Amino acid sequence: MLKFSRHNLFSSKNGSPFRFMLMLESVTLIQIPEQTPKNQDSQIKQTPNFQFSQTFISSLTHCKNIFQVHGQMIVNGLIQNLPIANKILNIYTLRGALQSASALFCEITEKNPVSWSVMIGGYAKAGDYMNCYSTFREYMRSGNGLDNYTLPIVIRVCRDTLDLQMGRLIHAVVFKYGFHSFVIVGSILVDMYAKCKVIEDARKVFDEMCKRDLVTWTVMIGACTECGNAHEALDLFDRMKVEGVVPDKIAMVNVVNSCAKLGVMQKATNVHDFIKRINFSLDVILGTALIDMYAKCGSVELAREIFDGMREKNVVSWSAMIAAYGYHGEGQKALDLFHVMLGRNIVPNKITFVSILYACSHSGLVEEGLHLFSSMENEYGVKPDVKHFTCVVDLFGRAGKLDKALKLIEDTNLKKDTGLWGALLGACRIHNRVELGEKVAESLLELESENAGHYVLLSNIYAKDGRWKEVAKVRELMTHRRLKKIPGYTWIEVDNKIHRFSVGDHSHYLSNEIYEELEILNEKLKVAGYVPDTNFVLHDIDEELKLELLNTHSEKLAITFGLIRTTKGTTIRITKNLRVCGDCHTFIKVVSLITDRMIVVRDANRFHHFREGACSCRDYW
DNA sequence: CTAGGGTTAG
Fold it and tell me: Is the CB of A355 under 7 A from strand B?
């Protein structure tokens, strides 16, 4: 059971007096008649005792002039019939005529739960949340009791506005009157908590539901994925199937997203096989999700296969494919595809531009990127936002034009975020711009003083320049502020299982074997000309320890494990990694050469393909 | 006459 303390309910930071009143009333003042939820299915009492056919009432939907029909209904008295009045009310709300709707609503003296839910839903659809909540409050007061139709509407509003506070409040009401056991109310509650990032409460509601249907499972799967537990999401999917719930396309989209987040190819192909087996045709959304999944699992080729096989494609599908090329370092292909897209009269949106600019910046296509950036607003009517600026800062950064990047940032009135300053700080590290780096780090820490990553980056900039005193200062500051860098992990998938490594890790069950093999491998690499580059360990420590740290980097452990456990010819995929350090990059390159293996590595949001000595990555470590 | 879940960036 969830706890609703006074503090939770009333400590609103953004609460207007009205809001406060509403909250107070809903919890303490309103007398909701005690009634059992089974009421939901009871027959609605009609005002004049005349039953109109369903067809007649539903045919009203197609009336062109609803005002005229409404007038006619008043004249001939049919407006007295509640289902008819409700239907007209509904049509008004569907057509956005909120004023007419609310006028009619007031006219209905004997409102039934349908009238209330239509009106409340109307306000919700129109985005008039104040009236939505206040009408809901009136409804609770009216003595009609809550119903299974209205609750999902208001909970949905809480979800869409990320209003966790109101959501908890309504949940309390739901709980008090026993509606939490209803599938629809429960499902939207799960979704509400999940979208508000309170996965624990989402899970609690889910676990306590006595009945779950496909939608319930789907939102819970999506919730786990969104909150960073894609593994759990896939486990839930298996459980769902065991319990005999048959997935549909929407469920599969969520599962596909879990695989994309996980970045595990084996899981991805399993899920795709499943989709093929149950003969789901790929609609735009499912197809696009698959493109994204394959791309994020390290195969831009399979993503392209899906893309080419899709009958219907929209701007999202094209953007997904362009983004896929982008983080696989295939900037030119991304650009080509972008132009094909334009040729098909698909209008790019802001996300398309983020994807294509990102692709340009990560492939060093500076001129092309800048050109696109300058034309996006004039030619395509897409106003650049922070994300676009971040790509351009990155573009300038790559070209070494840091001052241009800085000027760009300073000249814009856009609200600067950490990503924007972070891109510039990253560029400062690459180009050894210590003074600028200090300045940028200051802005960055002003926005986000608790992110250890920023301190590390700054300290690395100092270290690269040999300014150990400053390095120590930054580290001192970190200690003082009790910040710790979260260790980087590398995940590798072998035989359908995921193995995780961190630097110096000995927790793996094959640890001994891995370290032995790594030693042998290092010997071979030495012969091949690989020399560990300790410059990438920017700690102020002695060389021997640096080497030790370097040789036990998580990527190296993962790759070695991959070599042990896979046969020759198998692609080694590392699709989840925080950052591949420069030396590991070289290491992997040489490993791929001497072992004749294809190795795909994901570093942050970028993939590197190492194959037969050819490396698609044009990076400058 | 009314109610819940889906795609691209970050």
Answer: yes
